[in-house]
Amino acid sequence: MQYRDFGVTPLICFALAAALSACGGGVQDNPITPNEPLAIEAASSVSVTETPRGADPIASAGESLANATTPSLTVTPSVDSTALTPTSAAAPEALAVTLAAPKDGGSTKSNTTTPAVAQTSSSRPPVPASVTAALDAFDATTTMMTHPRLFKGQADYASIVAATKAERALGFNAMKDGLKRNSMQNAAKVSLASTDTTSLSSLQNWWPTLQSLEGMALSAFAWHASQDPWFLAETQARMSQYSTAVLSKNCALDVTQAREFVWYFALAYDFTKAGLSAAQRSSIYDLMRACANASLLTVNKTMASTATSGIDYASLTRFVGASIIMLRDLPEARSWLEPSLKNYLKLLHPLGSADGGYSNGTSYALWDAAEQMLVWDLIERVLGIQMSAHPYVANAHRFMAYTTPPNAANGVFGDGWEVKRQEEWGRFGRSLMTRSNNPLARWYYTQQSSGDVSRIDPLLSPRMLPDSTANPSAEPNAMSFPGIGWVAMHSSLADAKRASLFFKSSPMGSYNHNHADQNAFVLHKAGQSILTSSGVYYYYGSPHWLAWYKTTQAHNAVTFDGGQGQSLGVRGRGISSANGKIIRFEQGADWALSTGDATAAYLGIMSKALRTVSLLEGRYAIVLDS
Question: In this predicted model, which residue has the larger pLDDT, 504 or 37?
Answer without folding.
Answer: 504
